[in-house]
TrEMBL record:
The gene is gcdH. Its cofactor is FAD. GO terms for biological process: fatty acid beta-oxidation. The keyword Transcription regulation does not apply. Residues 23-130 form the Acyl-CoA dehydrogenase/oxidase N-terminal domain. The keyword Oxidoreductase applies. The lineage of its organism: Bacteria, Bacillati, Actinomycetota, Actinomycetes, Pseudonocardiales. One of its GO terms (molecular function) is acyl-CoA dehydrogenase activity. This is Glutaryl-CoA dehydrogenase. Residues 246-387 form the Acyl-CoA dehydrogenase/oxidase C-terminal domain. Residues 135-228 form the Acyl-CoA oxidase/dehydrogenase middle domain. Belongs to the acyl-CoA dehydrogenase family.
Length: 394
């Protein structure tokens, strides 16, 4: 059977052939949607730091938001499929992939992992249909890498309700989300618990973060909770300690690695096209040895990173993925991505800083991918603890 997918120049070893025929058809549909609907407007919305809400209906028709969860989409997706979808979306626009990943991975993943059967039925089908958009609020103004032990947002039980107080920062989708999964420390037992705060709840105030140089299309918010009252029925019933939060992050961290492959693949493909077309000294710059060295280095980074995340997906599908596997993938892939987007921008020379050439957007967005879902240093320490048996965290 012929593949419905056109061969990507960035997939040098043909890893997409590992997908089943049905999975390749899904990726092909998503790729066509991204090419016709997202790519033409990506730079415009990035420059304006606005979100293209008109795309939500298109994503809804693709029926891919519930792929990772039983009974929520026409096809139950493997981690390999959802990984390639993250790659594909990020290869077009890392901001849109962040919107998609926050909603389908962090928000839906929290409800699926930590919610009761009743809560899953209440929220997940509507989220899978993109009728309700989700966000995930963990990071705080004073707590990023140390948020596990330093979480400051509090939750106090008051009869049939909980009262939340505190702040969250860098929360994607939060300015418009219908529901936000909020992680707060129980004042009584000091354990971290999860709560679903619905849009319009009194005491919940999200404010858009301005002045970003990366993922500008993503609507990140700083959220203030002031005596925000949440009913007990909105407390995720199976979120009892930070270990449950970590279970969600273990799965989504691998998704960041997949997206990072897409980001560097896009930069490589843009640089390759430019090198073929741009002429200096009477010939295409693709004929120069140093340019070919850059291109070969970029493609090597993309290929080795893709091999790493493909194996990670296989471990996840087999149910044997560990923290250190996801941490290594995120750390290694984002480091290689950083080198790759820099080389791609270099191939463009001065033209590389012009947004119209798109490589500048991937160059800037890579910085956010490099930082979120655990910095390189934190992920390295997770791997280090696994291989030595000794923790080196402060």
């Amino acid at each position: 059977m012929n593949s419905p997918l056109t061969t990507l120049e960035g997939d040098f070893f043909g890893f997409e052939s590992l997908l089943s025929g049905v999975e390749q058809e899904i990726v092909a549909l998503v790729r066509d949607f991204l090419r016709t609907e997202v790519e033409p407007i990506a730079n415009e919305y990035w420059a304006r730091a606005e979100f293209p809400f008109q795309l939500v209906d298109g994503f809804r028709k693709l029926d891919i938001a519930g792929l990772m969860y039983d009974g929520l989409a026409a096809h139950r997706g493997t981690r390999l499929l959802t990984g390639f979808l993250a790659l594909e979306i990020c290869r077009t626009d890392p901001s849109i992939n962040t919107f998609y990943g926050v909603h389908t991975g962090l928000a839906m993943g929290s409800v699926n992992r930590c919610g009761s059967p009743e809560q899953k039925e209440r929220w997940l089908p509507a989220m899978a249909r993109l009728e309700k958009i989700g966000a995930f609020a963990l990071t705080e103004p004073h707590g990023g890498s140390d948020v596990a032990g330093g979480l400051e947002t509090t939750a106090r039980r008051d009869g049939d309700h909980w009262v939340l107080n505190g702040e969250k920062k860098w929360i994607g989708n939060a300015t418009f989300a219908d529901l936000v999964v909020v992680w707060a420390r129980d004042e009584e037992d000091r354990h971290v618990k999860g709560f679903v705060v619905e849009k319009g709840t009194p005491g919940f105030h999200p404010e858009k973060i301005e002045g970003k140089i990366a993922l500008r299309t993503v609507q990140n918010a700083q959220i203030t909770f002031t005596d925000c009252v949440v009913p007990e029925e909105n407390r995720l019933q199976n979120a009892r300690t930070f270990r449950d939060t970590s279970d969600v992050l273990r799965q989504t961290r691998g998704g960041v690695a997949w997206g990072s492959v897409g980001c560097m693949m896009a930069a490589y493909e843009l640089a390759l096209d430019y090198a073929r077309e741009r002429e200096q000294f009477g010939r295409p710059i693709a004929k120069f040895q140093l340019i070919q060295d850059h291109l070969a280095t970029m493609l090597g980074n993309v290929t080795s990173s893709l091999a790493l995340v493909v194996r990670l997906a296989q471990l996840q599908d087999s149910g044997v993925n560990k923290d250190e596997h996801s941490a290594m993938a995120k750390s290694v892939v984002t480091t290689r991505m950083r080198e790759t987007v820099a080389l791609a921008r270099e191939v463009f020379g001065g033209n590389g800083i012009l947004l119209e050439n798109s490589v500048a957007r991937f160059f800037a967005d890579a910085e956010a991918l490099y930082s979120y879902e655990g910095t390189r240093e934190i992920n390295q320490l997770i791997v280090g603890r696994a291989i030595t048996g000794m923790g080196a965290f402060v």
